[in-house]
Write a structure and sequence with these properties.
About 30% of the residues lie in helices and about 25% in strands. The chain has about 850 residues and is of the alpha+beta class.
């Protein structure tokens, strides 16, 4: 018999008749659906990614909790597992959480529970663990059947008033239970305890902070809103919340990294262990480590040091041991007698985690969307959450108070008519009949009538009646207070401030992490003298910084001197003076703004080309610089006034531009065919002059334009003809006459008094007579007699002219020739020049955008 045949002579697997297989295939009618694998994978992965982002890995900005943490805490609340109760088995807590709210593995739930109980991870633990919950050495916790837990006192503030309709409840995974969408979170948990999480395509890493500092910052924000009705800037918060406060202590090296994180949402904070060098017998020293940087594993650190010694990368350590106990951490590193302890410590900082960096990513869910947030924005969202919580709690308390007072009013009516009430009740066959007669007789509600028939005989005593009257009066006061809170947002904010300060006094403590000095942390400007300097920029985007040259003033009509070397088709568009320590804001034709320190612009000679601005700023495609504004301080009561090519104007407070990211910010929203052409700083009493290329000028008050946010589009400044566009904007404080210059070198001055003040959005007045020999206007400056003007041609030639040599003409004239131009050459830009008071030498003015003050030496300074 063949190996592949059985005793009946049949081949294994083929012992069924052929028609059976045929019938099986014939009855298989399941439809086959063709799908695009690429689209299916994309859809499935996006769904998975969004689930991880919104429902697993990232915290909510309001309570700082991930869903699993929130569910664990709520399960403990339902188990009545508070700080005044006995510890409960963690297995019970995990089981309840998994069965009711979190249908995932028990290890992830237990991991979240353990994390909230570890004092080296949480600045203020939300869970009180009993048993082995791991260690700073990286030891894992005992199994959940061995450990017990309960809520801490401070965690009760997280869930306070949750039963008073303060937060929304949503169905759980199988819609058999309700769970809170967010905790009331009476403590700012997101900042106080921090969090870490890795989602899909994004991660969050928020360090813990000191409760007192965060509450103090919140109180300041609330005070500013109540007293001055204004928002609080990040500049006011930074002196209060200077840096994170880690539960493990340590020393943060400087505040630059933390400040960057607080401003932008991203940064790197360097932290160092707390060490002490102790002398030993025989002239030896030892390094004693008592605090480690946050999240550093002590056992791995010791192992790392041992490996460095073993591999001869560090020489001079004779003994290494861990003497930590219940009293605290103590790592001892004994050194050879000929070893410099400080040098050895510096080597350990370099090669081990005795010095480490914490990469801050302040990412949280805002309305279920992940957002990178600055410190002030996080606090704003927290305060908004508390406003909603306290509002809902107040409404709940008001409803309960009104319900109780309603019953009391009924009882008092009954006591005032007790004989008749007793007669009605005794004469009624049923309770329902008695209630109906009471309602009919005394105009009571169903609830009041029920309370009367349920009334006990002791209520009839005089003492009990006095108690009811006192309770009624107290309720009336309480109802009035609650209604006042609901009617006045400032009263509501005051309640939040009072309550959160009570929490800070109750649970707050001193900083654990010191803020030290970073030897490497000094500003570049500390090494650079603060001197006047000239910035020049060309039409093709080349920029440079120059020392002030004493250009020789020439008579009107001269040929000028050779200025900046340019390539074919390039020419100088901006010349301004500022100081090396000032900020320089760059506004682009796309309506965005960038910022540099003046010293960050490379210095070059007067005749060199400079460097391309794209090497310094992250400009987008077809984005060009249209205005440059030097700014010495953002904490001033000034506005930035913008004008576009199509005549749109916009006013925004300079404070709104205090925090400009490296990749820029939107300064104004533009239509597709429009471009931002000029920006100036103004005050509320300024008059604005807009001049067009066709020789039209409009003058209006700055107050005609209301202050707008950065995202606004602005309003109409002048009504333009189809072929016209704006060439410049000036302010009345910049001079007493208006200089206009045409592309063919003609120009004139006209007194400002000839331009009557109109309303914004008008047609304007004629300010220049344009003929073939003059060409269109290319620039405008408000000037005085002592001013000088620098005119720049497209060939790179510069000529300097005294304004005292330029005659004053009426509005509708063409003026005189100001510069001799070569064939085909044109004037492309003008810049103002002013004399110094001290020595008579000349310097470029900063196009009038920065307030000038007189220095002690008599020199005009910016």
């Amino acid at each position: 018999m063949a190996d592949n045949e059985n005793k009946n002579g049949q081949t294994p697997g083929n012992d069924l008749p052929d028609d059976v297989f045929d019938s099986t295939e014939a009855t298989n009618t399941d439809p086959i659906t063709n799908v695009d694998l690429k689209k299916t994978m994309e859809t499935s992965y996006i769904d998975y990614a969004m689930s991880v982002i919104a429902s697993r890995a990232l915290p909510d900005v309001r309570d700082g909790l991930k869903p699993v943490q929130r569910r664990v805490l709520y399960s403990m609340v339902e188990l009545n597992n508070g700080p005044d109760k006995a510890h409960r088995k963690c297995a019970r807590i995990v089981g309840d959480t998994m069965g009711k709210y979190h249908p995932h593995g028990d290890s992830s739930i237990y991991g979240a529970l353990v994390y909230m109980a570890q004092p080296w991870n949480m600045r203020y633990c939300l869970v009180d663990g009993h048993g082995n919950f791991g260690s700073v050495d990286g030891d894992g916790p005992a199994a959940m059947r061995y450990t017990e837990a309960r809520l801490t006192k401070i965690s009760m503030e997280m869930v306070a008033d949750i039963g008073k309709d303060t937060v929304d409840f949503v169905p759980n995974f199988d819609e058999t239970e309700k769970e809170p969408a967010v905790m009331p979170s009476r403590i700012p948990n997101l900042l106080v305890n921090g969090t870490t999480g890795i989602a899909v395509g994004m991660a969050t890493n928020i360090p813990p902070h000191n409760l007192r500092e965060v509450v103090k910052a919140i109180s300041l924000m609330i005070d500013n809103r109540i007293n001055e009705d204004r928002e609080t800037s990040i500049e006011e918060i930074l002196p209060i919340v200077k840096a994170p406060d880690y539960p493990t202590g340590g020393i943060i090296l400087g505040t630059r990294g933390a400040e960057e994180a607080y401003r932008t949402g991203r940064g790197k904070v360097r932290c160092r262990a707390v060490t002490d060098i102790e002398p030993m017998n025989g002239g030896k020293n030892r390094i004693v480590v008592t605090e480690l940087p946050y999240l550093v594993n002590k056992a791995k650190l010791i192992e790392r040091i041992a490996d460095l010694v073993k591999n001869k990368k560090i020489d001079g350590i004779t003994a290494l041991r861990d003497e930590s106990d219940k009293e605290g951490m103590r790592i001892v590193i004994e050194l050879r007698h000929d070893v410099n302890a400080q040098v050895m410590l510096n080597k350990l900082y370099k090669h081990t985690d005795l010095q480490s960096s914490f990469g801050v990513i302040m990412l949280a869910l805002v309305n279920n969307e992940p957002k990178i947030l600055s410190l002030d924005k996080m606090l704003v969202y927290y305060i908004k959450h508390q406003e909603e919580v306290v509002t809902r709690r107040t409404r709940y308390d008001l409803g309960k108070a009104e319900e109780r007072d309603h019953i009391l009013q009924g009882l008092l009516i009954a006591l005032d008519n007790i004989d008749e009430v007793i007669k009605i009740i005794r004469g009624s066959q049923t309770v329902q009949i008695a209630k109906e007669q009471l309602i009919s007789r005394f105009a009571l509600s169903e609830v009041q009538a029920q309370a009367i028939v349920d009334m006990r005989l002791r209520t009839l005593t005089g003492l009990e009646r006095d108690k009811l009257m006192a309770e009624h009066e107290e309720l009336l006061k309480k109802i009035a207070e609650l209604k006042a809170i609901l009617a006045d947002r400032k009263l509501l904010l005051g309640v939040i401030r009072t309550e959160i300060n009570i929490i800070a006094d109750k649970y707050g403590d001193d900083r654990k992490t010191q803020i030290g000095h970073d030897e490497d942390e000094f500003e570049d400007e500390d090494l650079i003298p603060n001197v006047n300097t000239v910035i020049a920029m060309t039409s093709l985007g080349y920029i440079k910084r120059m020392a002030i040259d004493n250009f020789k003033a020439q008579n009107r009509g001269g040929h000028g001197i050779k200025g900046i070397s340019t390539i074919d088709g390039d020419y100088v568009t901006d010349l301004l003076m500022t100081t090396t320590h000032n900020n320089v804001m760059f506004f682009t034709n796309k309506g965005r703004v960038y910022r540099l320190k003046t010293y960050q612009i490379p210095e070059a000679s007067r005749t060199s080309r400079g460097v391309a601005i794209v090497n310094l700023l992250q400009l987008g495609p077809d984005e060009k610089i249209s205005a440059i504004i030097p700014v010495s301080s953002f904490d001033v009561e000034k506005n930035l006034f913008m004008v576009t090519k199509k005549g749109t104007v916009k006013k925004t407070s300079i404070r709104d531009f205090a925090n400009v990211r490296k990749n820029g910010l939107n300064a104004i929203n533009l239509e597709d065919d429009d471009a931002l052409i000029e920006v100036k700083t103004t005050t509320e009493n300024s008059h604005i002059f807009l001049v067009t290329k066709n020789g039209i000028c409009i003058r209006f008050k700055e107050t005609d334009v209301r202050s707008m946010g950065r995202g606004a589009m602005g309003v109409r400044g002048i009504m333009l003809d189809d072929d016209d566009e704006i060439v410049g904007m000036q302010i009345d404080s910049q001079g007493d006459s208006l200089l206009v210059v045409s592309e063919k070198g003609y120009g004139k001055r006209t007194n400002l008094s000839e331009f009557k003040t109109q309303y914004r959005g008008g047609k304007g007045l004629k300010c220049y007579k344009i003929v073939e020999k003059t060409g269109h206007l290319i620039g405008v400056k408000a000037v005085n007699e002592d001013h000088e003007i620098m005119m720049i041609t497209d060939a790179g030639t510069i000529i300097q002219i005294r304004m005292s040599e330029v005659s004053v003409y009426s509005r509708i004239t063409s003026g005189v020739k100001l510069i001799k131009l070569d064939e085909g050459s044109k004037v492309v830009s003008i810049a103002k020049v002013r004399e110094k008071v001290s020595d008579g030498s000349r310097e470029l003015d900063n196009v009038d955008d920065i307030e000038e003050e007189s220095g002690e030496d008599g020199e005009r300074t910016l």
